[in-house]
Amino acid sequence: MNLSIILKGMAMGIAEAIPGVSGGTIAFITGIYERLLDAIGGILGPKVVASWRTEGIASAWTAADGGFILQLGIGMVVGLGIAVFSITELLEMYPPVVWAFFFGLIISSAIYVARQIDKWSILSVLLLIFGTASAYFLTTINPMSGSNSLIFVFLAGMIAISALILPGISGSFILLLLGMYTVVMESVRSLLSGDTGALVLVATFAFGCLIGLAVFSRVLSYTFKTFPNQTLALLTGFMLGSLNKLWPWRNALTTRLNSKGEEVPMLEQAVLPADYLGENTFVPAVIIAFMAGLAIVFVLDRFAPKKDEMDVLEETL
Question: What span is annotated as the signal peptide, if there is one (predicted)?
Fold first, then answer.
């Protein structure tokens, strides 16, 4: 077992449990993003199928980088569990502080990604602006009405799961915008409660997720290999545009009912601490949390092993 991959999966799982934070961002700053794209895109690819037909399951497992996907998945499940019992509680008790940490984290992540661009061009700058504007627009639009139509459920799965591997955009937030968050969550809860009537809807959503991952991961893998600087510029823009969703002090404009029947914010407006309607602004703690989030990526980058060292470490573990 590779402890490093499991820990990175845990970090992704924690991020995915928080609306507005993308596991794809964590994958990028921990150095596994391109490997993740290749592994997801290759699961149903011709190489894996050919290996399975000619050499059996063991060869297909190796061709699909199955060990990596399995260990990352284990880490994500553990991370989601940690988030459910800790991060979500902290969000209820100290929301500005938690959001400040992730605000700083995304800023430093965007800087980190932008620094990977070898050469800036006019196209790269335009893609940066486009990515920023697109992500910002997504944080401000009114959500659509949900639907139980299986075609819409399938499309929602394809679109939402793409955000899992797209830095700067949260899959849960995409479901909210599509009006499908409550529909999907209630169906999953019903299925887990023994109501088989929700099986078709959940299966359709899962199939949409599978197809979305297979297609979108290959598209991103191609653009990374063919247009690396332009792709990095676009992803940097996505991260910058998502900051509107992570601003520490936000007042609710509209609300929704979550899976527990509780009223929670849907659309929010970023405000200054003086205009914040919450019980406490936590300004000193917000500043500390922001600085910690800002520093963590640069600390990880500074002390992270180089590629050759990582190869040796993974073989050892």
Answer: none
Query: Residue 86 belongs to what H/E stretch?
Result: none
What secondary structure letter does DSSP report for 257? E
Taking alpha carbons only, the member of 134, 132, 104 closest to residue 240 is 132
Contact residues for 209 (Cβ-Cβ < 8 A; gap 6+): 157, 158, 160, 161
Q: At what angle do helices 122-138 and 228-241 cross, to 10 degrees?
A: 30
CA–CA gap between residue 136 and residue 246 (Å, rounded): 11
Residue with tokens 């019903």: 190
d(CA 168, CA 198): 31
- Judge whether 109 and 241 are in contact, CB under 8 Å: no
Non-local (6+) Cβ contacts of 187 within 8 A are 198, 201, 202, 205
* Boundaries of domain holding 61: 3-316
How far apart (Å, rounded) are the C-alpha atoms in residues 277 and 293?
Answer: 24
More confident residue, 143 or 105: 105
* Helix spans in 116-167 (H): 122-138, 150-162
List all residues 6 or more positions away from 316 whose beta carbon is below 8 Å from its beta carbon: none
- Quote the number of domains for the chain: 1
Contacts of 55 (CB under 8 A, 6+ apart): none
In Å, what is the CA distance from 76 to each residue of 2, 12, 221?
14, 6, 22
Lowest mean pLDDT among 72-81, 139-148, 240-249, 255-264: 255-264
Rg (CA), the chain: 20
Structure tokens at 301: 């980058």
